[in-house]
Specification:
Blueprint (H helix, E strand, L loop, with lengths): L3 H10 L5 H6 L7 E5 L7 E3 L4 E7 L4 H6 L18 H4 L3 E2 L7 E2 L3 E2 L4 E10 L13 E5 L4 E2 L3 E3 L11 E6 L15 E6 L7 E3 L5 E3 L4 E3 L11 E8 L24 H5 L4 E7 L16 H4 L1 E5 L5 E4 L5 E4 L2 E9 L24 E8 L1 H4 L2 E6 L32 E4 L1 E2 L6 E4 L4
């Protein structure tokens, strides 16, 4: 979950729309199209604190960013010749975030405090019209019971996504969990209100999320984001669930970003679901050509071996045939120097909790995919950070969110049953 640049773009498009209209359409209209579910039963897959103190400042300036303990990419230059915007230099968000969420954020400049963020990832997509701040109760390690000041769907707003609700509020500090004075959520409970939070999943069942819980003993200053799901589907003939059915919400600098736009299709889409925003450093975006920097895929090989798909554009022989990784999608637009789209540190991507690996090859081979791996720093791969990460030019003496760990996620083979649901809430 990382909302820096996409949110700035969308807010700019929506300045003339009232908050009531924004809430009603289309983020909270309850529609789903090809939306993935990740388990047979509804559950919370993750709900840890994402980062602290960087949401809701009154103006996005370097002074405010440093004040709240954010990071500012001071040396950033863009290959397209344009000056980088403030939102490209930092993960700190200004008060404009309130326009896309139910509730409000806060900023206490005198005490150098802004809102914290906590993404909740459900295994079944959410019926977004049922999201409200009164659905969520957090218990801190101190015993405090707190509720969010805001809740919403950005950046996971597309009809094919909607598994992740983001909360803002006063949830903790930057102490590691084993340090004296640490304050962070250890338990989330979905509670009943006058309009219970609803989920939709297997067999088109619609269920109440009330009673679901998540517990943890860690915070993002111990360890960064992880994979919480990986699922293989056929690409099919067209992208399903991209955007929100047209209009200004599809008119962004990071769309279209599907596999047809980037690669002309492909045969298989290995979609990952993440516990938080994935960034190489906390500020810059992941590029479609960075598969081999962060990921590798495990596949059964001949004679009981395991074949690692470590490179994009290379055809590998595995059990059942051949497979080739084309690259990553569901990030941003395809590189196009004529239109000023470069795969550089100014690259704009959607920064949500989904990234797709697109593959070509034989179906029998694809059925032998076993794991998606983040090898991590110990294996000389890149680390991934939540938005509170250090960025390329961190301020000295500031604690930022920690890099994500090495991670090995089993891949659900959803070639026979795609494990997707649809919903037209207007009917």
């Amino acid at each position: 979950m990382n909302i820096q640049r996409p949110l700035a773009l969308l807010i700019g498009l929506l300045l003339l729309i009232s908050c009531e209209q924004l809430i009603e359409y289309p983020l909270y209209n309850g529609n789903l199209a090809g939306a993935d579910y990740w388990s047979d039963q509804p559950q919370i897959l993750s709900a840890g604190l994402g980062f602290t103190d960087i949401i809701g400042v009154d103006e996005l300036t370097e002074e405010n960013v440093q004040l709240v303990g954010g990071s500012w990419y001071s040396t950033l230059t863009c290959q397209n010749g344009k000056a980088p915007e403030a939102s490209e230099r930092t993960a700190v968000r200004d008060k404009g975030v309130n326009m896309a969420y139910k509730g409000t954020t806060f900023f206490d400049k005198a005490n150098k405090v802004a809102a914290d963020a906590l993404p909740i990832v459900f295994s079944w997509p959410v019926l977004t019209e049922t999201v409200d701040i009164t659905d969520f109760q957090l218990t801190l390690n101190t015993g405090e019971i707190v509720t969010p000041t805001a809740a919403g769907m950005l950046p996971n707003y597309e009809y094919g996504e909607r598994n992740c609700v983001v909360l803002f509020g006063d949830f903790g500090n930057r102490f590691r969990s084993n340090e004296a004075g640490a304050r962070f959520p250890v338990r989330l409970t979905i509670i009943a209100d006058d309009k219970p939070l609803l989920l939709k999943g297997k067999n088109n069942a619609v269920v109440s999320a009330v009673g679901l819980t998540w517990t943890t003993n860690q915070n993002p200053y111990d360890e960064g984001p992880k994979l919480v799901g990986a699922k293989l589907n056929f690409v099919g003939k067209k992208p399903i669930g991209e955007g929100v059915g047209g209009g200004i919400w599809n008119n962004t600098d990071f769309m279209p970003n599907d596999e047809f736009t980037l690669y002309g299709g492909g045969n298989f889409r290995l979609r990952m679901l993440t516990s938080g925003g994935f960034s190489p450093d906390g500020i810059t975006g992941i590029k479609p050509n960075q598969y081999e920097k962060f990921f590798r895929i495990h596949v059964r090989g001949p004679g009981g071996t395991t074949v690692m798909l470590t490179k994009a554009g290379v055809e590998y022989t595995v059990l059942g045939g051949k497979l080739k990784v084309l690259g990553l999608s569901d990030l941003g637009k395809k590189e196009n120097l004529k239109d000023g789209v470069y795969y550089d540190d100014c690259y704009i991507e959607d920064r949500d909790n989904y990234i797709d690996v697109i593959l070509t090859g034989d179906e029998a081979a694809a059925r032998n995919i076993t794991f998606l791996e983040l090898p991590g720093l110990a294996s000389n791969y890149g680390a991934l950070y939540n938005p509170g990460g250090p960025g390329p030019t961190p301020y000295p003496g500031v604690r930022y969110t920690a890099p994500g760990p090495a991670d090995l996620e089993p891949v659900i083979i959803a070639l026979d049953d795609p494990m997707r649901v649809n919903r037209d809430a207007s009917r």
